[in-house]
Amino acid sequence: MSTHSHSLKQLALQKFKKNFWGVFSFYFIVLVGFISIFAYVIAPDNSQYANQMHLSIHSKKPGFKVDMLIIPSQLNSNQSTFDKVFFGKKNPDTEIPISAYSVKNNALIYTEYASDGLKGAEKSIDIKQDDALGPFVKSKTFYWGTDKYGRDLLSRILVGARISFFIGFVAVFISLVIGIFMGSLAGYFGGKVDAVIMWIINVTWSIPTLLLVIAITLALGKGFWQVFIAVGLTMWVEVARVVRGQIMSVKELQYVTAARALGFGNFRIITKHILPNIMAPVIVISAANFAAAILIESGLSFLGIGAQPPMASWGAMIKDHYNYIILGKPYLAIIPGLCIMALVMAFMLIGNALRDALDVKS
Q1: Contact by Cβ (8 Å): 230, 293
Q2: What Cα–Cα distance (Å) separates residue 33 from each residue in 19, 167, 282, 351, 362?
Q3: Number of structural domains found in the chain
């Protein structure tokens, strides 16, 4: 029996490997996951939420370069390496975009950067030759340009991937836990239990998803984890309906009848015998739910009730810059939009590939 089961797994894996777009999507999702985890290591701006603002260089085109005067702060952030890698660096330093600078008599004279051919204000600060914390100048390149607040767009995109990626995992996990539990009870026991659960499912199903998410978000409050929970609580009905239908179709088969004859309890029959044999369609719908969760979160962020500033979110970035589409800088909204589209497409393609690989009839 175990050899046969192993061979079916190998057959499904071989069928999946033959699907080019499925394999490509898998590696793309792994890449996005890696970026999400180590976003602050990769991002040029590793400050928390990539939120280093420079209003004087707002909305600059990709490849923009500027000299940045960095005045180190004497404050000690007391941050661990783990905290810096996974949650960003608390940057107390002052960064000032400048167009020119010179050093005279232990004083650094600099001209602040100004756009549109204007000349910025000329200022100076005292420095000491032996001052290890003295100011210094670095050339900084914004490879994807800057947003309307002068923040590095590339860094915001990389950090924003974390929300879009992890909301899929959290929302799908919540939907699987609730959906499999409710669907198993309804499908296995039937009768009044099935009637009550189906009534709950139909009521939940009749409410528009976005409206239900907004209501739950407002009840739980605006925030990062509240959105994750709200999206997960609206996606369990699809899982429950699929699990219910699958269990109803297999609960009278011989292996279930044999398990009952051997005296096994209902819990063991459901978890050890039925669920392992009906997980193929659940896996497929979970991949589709990943994509749906990303789209819902982006819509909530666009409406302003998703991840709150200064957190980076692709949906919020579109909201902040959609008016730039007609102001000659459409890439500020198009780039995060393309990121959402690419990640959603990857999950849909891998869902189709899993459906084909797990289809025993093909």
Answers
A1: no
A2: 21, 12, 22, 17, 31
A3: 2
At 250, the pLDDT band (50, 70, 90 cuts) reads confident
Is the pLDDT confidence value at 359 over 90?
no
**Parent domain of 284:** 2-34+154-358
Nearest to 234 by CA among 197, 258, 208, 199: 208
Same domain, 12 and 99: no
**Do both 206 and 305 map to the same domain?**
yes
Whether residue 172 contacts residue 229, with contact meaning beta carbons closer than 8 Å, is answered with: no
DSSP class of residue 265 equals -
Residues 251 and 344 in one domain: yes
Sign of CA dihedral 141, 147, 152, 156: negative
Confidence tier at 34 by pLDDT (50, 70, 90): very high
Helices vs strands, H then E, count in the chain: 14, 5
CA angle at 313 for the pair 311 and 317, rounded to the nearest 5°: 110
Q: What's the distance, Cα to Cα, between the start and end of the chain in Å?
A: 21
Closest CA to 12 of 361, 359, 307: 359
Please name the residues in contact with 199: beta carbons below 8 A apart, sequence gap of 6 or more: none
Question: At 168, which CATH number?
Answer: 1.10.3720.10
Sheet holding 122-126, edge to edge: 122-126, 107-112, 94-104, 64-71, 136-142
pLDDT in tens, 69-114: 888 776 666 778 888 888 888 877 788 888 888 877 777 888 888 8
What mean pLDDT do residues 331-359 have?
Answer: 89
The SS3 of residue 141 is strand
- Give the C-alpha separation, 290 to 348, whole Å: 9
264 and 134 fall within a common domain: no
Give a yes or no: residue 46 inside a domain: no
What pLDDT sits at residue 328?
Answer: 84
